[in-house]
Protein 1
Amino acid sequence: MTNKKAYPKAWLFVLPVVALVAFNALIPLMTVVNYSVQETFGNNVFFWEGVKWFEQVLNSERFHASLLRQLTFTGIILSIEVPLGIAIALTMPTRGIWVSVCLVLMALPLLIPWNVVGAMWNIFALPEIGLLGQIINGMGFDYNFTQQPLSAWFTTILMDVWHWTSLVVLLAYAGLQSIPDAYYQAAKIDGASGWAVFRYIQLPKMKRVLTIAILLRFMDSFMIYTEPFVLTGGGPGNTTTFLSIDLVKIALGQFDLGPAAAMSLVYFLIVLLLCWVFYTLMMRTEEQ
Amino acid sequence: MRKVVWLAPTLYILFLMLPIYWLLNMSFKTTNEILGAFTLWPQEFTLDNYVKIFTDPTWYNGYFNSLTYVLINTSISVSVALPAAYAFSRYRFLGDKHLFFWLLTNRMAPPAVFALPFFQLYSAVNLFDTHIAVALAHCLFNIPLAVWILEGFMSGVPKELDETAYVDGYSFWRFFLRIFLPTIAAGVGVAAFFCFMFSWVELLLAKTLTSVAAKPIAATMTRTASTAGYELGLLAAAGSLTIVPGAFVIYFVRNYIAKGFALGRV
């Protein structure tokens, strides 16, 4: 990152990218900003409203509730997927035919369209016809994710773990693969314990890829929409209504453009702020 | 000890396969059997659900539509990301770091935020319900990702390669196309794989930007789920078929997949 040549014309190389992304990002963003400060009663007639919608969103209990649900969800899935992913990467075979088999099978959930993931888990978890529903009820628990908030949360979290843990596994595995054998031999000569090898050799080497894993998982889980929407529809009640689901309900369901736009901007800023913190931390570790 | 170590990945893969098995299981059952009895495998094995999908144009066109915009998106994203990634990995220029971060912020933008403005934007430029609209919309998050991945792979190539080529009298484009691209071929493959993947799995924007002519398979499925009530077998068959293209592309990049998920930065 340090000894790069200064070359102002390099801008020409990035111009196509900037043009395409700007078309897709800036125009819609300006539209959202526009709606967020105005009131409309249809027919393209708009009135200036200033920061009214922002005040409304920031003070609304509904927004606080979805934000809290979102943070809880993201926190839970991160604290399950990251350690689980590392553990599986550590126990995966390191060479031979089984490596390819493991990688291909593990990557499979990542390439299934998100609504199919939701539909699949719906069929899988339904109490009457689903395998999971039958197993849990057979063990004597009262489980019905369409009616009980706790079951709905359990199913949503299990679905996300199923869907995305492989991403962490693949990243951690890539980090482990980059450790030269000499490190392990040196550790063996020193008589290092398994824990010491993990703590002082494997974990530092995985630091960089794990930061990427956490960053990606954080971003994607914070934007989650399709899977829980298909699985639970945000219910029962509002118990699994995460930020995106709530936003789409307000924008496309109730067509409240002003509040929806203000909420969009607040939402986007929260993601941006948290990602900026991660990104700065990541760049700092990269420079070390 | 060896056996215990093998247990964790095996159990994990088993856990991954169970819901997929259940989906396949459902897709070979008749609606009566699905709703009538709980069976671990199809008692009256039927291919009717698949036959319906392969003979009904509203169904199989969904697959063509999805594949069309995914392929358009992948080619656009990778080809514009290549020079940009090269610039980011080799040169310093005005605002380079800010630009890079700005690109990444678009990967962070929740699609739900952009759904409505996208609908209005693409309607305004008369592209609503076309494959190219969805392909362009997906560039929003795929181009930043492709730039990020390619930049990682390119930074892994020593700068001496470029310098030697120039000393040998190569022009820039000749060097880039004849020497540099083959060197990072794996990176290009991985970037294409990721663009394919994220465009293939995304539904919210694809559904918002299409109505009939470019309707993706995933949207066809949602419609079936809501209007036809409980045609679970059909839904399961359609879902099972959406796994096929993904499995196909994973097979091609299987040797680079781990490095690819690390965005070339291992």
Protein 2
Amino acid sequence: MSAQHFRFVASDRRVREDRRFVAGKGNFVADVVLPGTLHVALVTCPHAAARIKSIDKRAALKMPGVRYVIDGAELAAGTDVLMAGLDTPNVPRRPLAFEVARYSGEWVAAVAAETRAQAEDAAEAVEVGYEPLPFVLDAEKAMEKNAPLVHEKHGSNVLLDRAFVWGTVEEDFAASPRKLSLRVKWARSSTVPIETFGVVARWDPGGDILDVWASIQMPRYAEQIASALKIPSSSVRVHYDVDVGGSYGVKRGIKHSVLVGYLARRLGAPVRLIEDRLENMRGGDAHGPERLFDVEVAFDNDGTVRSMKMQALENLGAYAGRSPFQLGKPVGSIVGPYKIKSVQYRAIAVVTNKTTQDAVRGFGQGPTNLALERAMDEIANTLGLDPLEVRRRNLIRAHEFPYLIPSGTTYDSGDYETVIGKVLADTDYNALIKERDRLRAEGKLAGIGIAACLEPSGGNATFEALLNPKITTSTFMDSCRINVDGNGTVTATMHTTSSGQGHETLVGTVIGEVLGIHPDAIRVTRPDSLNSLPSGTPVGSRMAIMLGGAAFHAAQKLMDKLTAIGAHDLGIPRERAVYEKGDVYDRHKPADRRSWAELVGIAHRNIHRMPASMEPGLATSHIYSVPTGGALPAADGRVQMYPCFSFEFHLLLLTIDPDLGTPRILRYRVGHDCGTQINPKIVRGMTMGGIAHGIGAALYEEFAYNDEGQLIAQSFMDYLLPSSHEVPAIKLIEHETPSPHTVFGQKGSGESGYLGAPAAVANAVNDALRPLGISINTLPLKATKLGDLIAAARAKSATTA
Amino acid sequence: MRIELTVNGAKHVLDIEARTTLLDCLRDHLGLKGAHAGCEHGVCGACTVLCDGAAVRSCLMFAPQAEGSTITTIEGVTPAPGELSPVQDAFCETHGMQCGYCTPAMILTAHALLAGNPDPTRDEIVEAISGNICRCTGYAQIVEAISLAAERMRGTNTPGGPRP
């Protein structure tokens, strides 16, 4: 299908989910209220590390409404450890701390009571005896020889240390006239959705079924609950019709769900745990990457980059689920949009006494892009060249696609120069430089920020095998099922939750496009996990590609079946029958046709008119696997990581108040190319929201700890989310380079904006500071930090002057 | 304790604990699930309802404090089942949301703004919604929705103007 033939795809249609949300009729997990529900509140460890000596539940158990108090020993005896990504059996993770608590805020015990208020009151009455232990917070210190061990049995704090060399790195470094190195730090932040994580579970002892409603976005959720509870997965029924109030990766409350599932079985009552904000930020295990990069680049005098060495050191926090894999995904676009021909990459992950991480939007790509884009700016700075010009000299050209990068991934398509050209056609770059220089002449600190980044999309899971050779997962599917009922109406199912991505709109639009019927006439539902086909869930910017692909092929199968029925009933060969908007007609005599209603009638009621051996009814399904997927990494780590690569180019002008250090973004333009846009409203929202989120990561957001290991940003008073004041008016300039791998040429956009904005903002801040002779490569670039730096630089220049 | 609340035009007599927040009261006692808990410390604004027409945080107010006031929730601005207010419809037109969690509060804040200012500038819209955090959209399509709603609402009072 070429773009000009689309009827519904790529048209500016409304998003069907919106109607229930504007009416306040979303079905969020806290809205699921079952009679007799017990509420959970948590007892948490106040120390950065401590041995649990005693837990006295007696006072709590006597309090009004309290039904049960559970500790880590009981839960450890009754459940298996939670799934880990790496092969680290001596780093067990459990919902409640067992024997040792490893970060401040870790759950030690839980109270179940008739109301949440009663549970909270009783949680305060649980007396826990602790013996504080030595602790370590910093990733580099955690690697030192005599560092306190977070998990003693593991023998070290290092969970992962893998080095890869792709190409002739040392030779390229030796042959390059110029080199530079820099250190870049991505601060511990996260996506922090406005809805906290929540889960409700009910055990039916007669049917042996655990019903689960949860604010979840996670692959293999039901399977993981079942494994930990030691029950068959067919005894866990996850209800996918729960609306998730934002996730962007982190809504993965497996420990909450295992705890609540255990209690529901133990107590014979529905149990729910809805985090409050403190629980969410401290013990919800939803922090994002905290990554220290050491980058070395080798380049020519004209700015052509020949080779790169990148070391990424990740501070995982106290336990690890899938979070270390966030060091693996960026391998698939390690050189960004540039022709860097050799790369050395070392990925190190260590445990510390901080809150556990989970997946965050981009799965490690945002931090990697920051490091690479800061390096590009520093190359320009060193050579006295324009940073835009240096990027242009290194860009992969449109005619060079498909393009194989050193780490083994082939980029599908792109036209980076055209996207940048479109942005510059909208905003005169030289005029922007003049404006910056005019602001500087007025005594202001002003800077221009540029970032050119890729968004890998399609969500393959080969980073698992890359970092843990015991894992042999090579694909990551998604699915769609379509049924046409006896009245001729179409119902499609999708098999996961959504957290704002508009998947029902996606499915309706795709099926409508293929079948030539109006998307609004297609019902889209989300059954529970026992009535679903496989889904990899909305991770890795994959659903437009994967769910879109599944819906497309399921609809094609339905169209093929209708065509075959029509051909048979018309008495013509299959090749002569044409399907058009629900009707099937004879190519040679278009008046000879069967309408949609007639075809439905044949399939449902006149089975004697069906082709022999064809199943009656009109139901089809398709399970779609990742395009270009299916291979495991080579021995040297080379792998086709993701199938599709979207591109974004950020350009902004920013000022910094020289006295207060407050950054203010004056202009923001972004060029964006994610191939064919199935729904432009959704793509626009993703990109704008991603930029806002990226501005937060760059300037405001940090889960900061004090020296005692206490999280000191544990409310929205301390952890600053950008409000409408902090997000400037942004102009989005779209371009569409279709992907050859997908059904409509679509690529992913769920992580767009977020993957480039932090780098662009950091580059703008550094450009603004450059006249003072200072630079800063540690996020977040908070006003207080900038103010101090500027004051120190001025004091220094005053003394030397 | 026994309190009398006027919510969406109806009077309710309730027997509640004195420490019950207005948010919990609306959700747990009156079944009005459109008000959402986000931070429960008055920053995110997801719990916003209208109290005598003003946008207030229902997590920072005890239910007994609302006695004698008129409370409007998202359920109260919907004209009839299946129908939408001009503001709600404008949010659908621009896709001024993603996950929908902050949306009812954002719409109520917009209603409060437009009731007093039928023709707000971009800066006035930005200021009005600055107490409502949206993590999904980056606010662009929300600002557009409110601007579009204002335009349409002005138009409805003009002969020949656009219909909402």
